Amino acid sequence: MQTISMDEMYENVYMQSPPLIEGLLYAGTYLFVGAPKVGKSFFMLQLAFSVSTGKPLWNYSVNKGTVLYLALEDNLGRLQKRLYGMFGTDSTPDLHIATESHQFGKGLYTKTFS
Predict the structure, then answer these.
(1) Is residue 82 part of a domain?
(2) Parallel, antiparallel, or unpaired for β 95-98 and 67-70?
(3) What share of the chain has pLDDT > 90, as a percent?
(4) Is residue 65 part of a domain?
(5) pLDDT above 70: residue 69
(6) Which candidate, 93, 17, 80, places its Cα nearest to that of 45?
(7) 63 within 8 A of 94, measured Cβ to Cβ
């Protein structure tokens, strides 16, 4: 395991990642949980679409980025219907969707997007 001392860390200036959504969502790992059928998947699709297009989410500014949406309990037909119902024919090449994957360490790797 590679470590760095606090003294060594203070000798450098590290750039902070910009928020994905100003004042709302920053880089990192989040758990978004709630009761069944309250709209979690709809909200996550809205969030993914906003980030992948750079379009504002509600009144929040969004920094555009590429999104990998793992819908591992869904299928493409259902997602297509849901996305069309939410966004009509608006589309983006920066929202990537997967409904299947291997386990971590057995093939679940994310592509580096430029």
Answers:
(1) yes
(2) parallel
(3) 70
(4) yes
(5) yes
(6) 80
(7) no
